[in-house]
Amino acid sequence: xxxxxxxxxxxxxxxxxxxxxxxxxxxxxxxxxxxxxxxxxxxxxxxxxxxxxxxxxxxxxxxxxxxxxxxxxxxxxxxxxxxxxxxxxxxxxxxxxxxxxxxxxxxxxxxxxxxxxx
Length: 118
What we know:
- It is a single chain.
- By secondary structure, the chain is an alpha+beta fold.
- It has a single domain, classed as Roll (Transcriptional Co-activator pc4, Chain A).
- 22% of the residues lie in helices and 46% in strands.
- It has three helices and eight strands.
- The protein has helices at residues 20-23, 56-62, 99-113; strands at 4-12, 26-33, 41-46, 50-55, 67-69, 72-77, 81-88, 91-98.
- The protein has an eight-stranded antiparallel sheet.
- It is globular.
- The relative contact order is 0.22.
- The model has no long low-confidence stretch (mean pLDDT 87).
């Protein structure tokens, strides 16, 4: 088993962006899954750095239908995008990512979690 880390670009779609220009700017995000330290969880790090940890199952479900758990909400946006909404005491961060990126990441997490037979 090994950790999976994937970098992607996301668009900030929240009204807390500093300007209309910031709102449409692509920002780097890191997706991480470590089956040895925290098997059912994924981590998403946004610039700031801000990191959210939540169930991998929530990400899977949110790609098909709106889903939420605690401070995290995920829902499909059209056929090719997904929206992730993160709530914290400092406000709400809403980002939009390509669904293909998230699907590829999830597939890799299942490969990483499968023990290799010898």
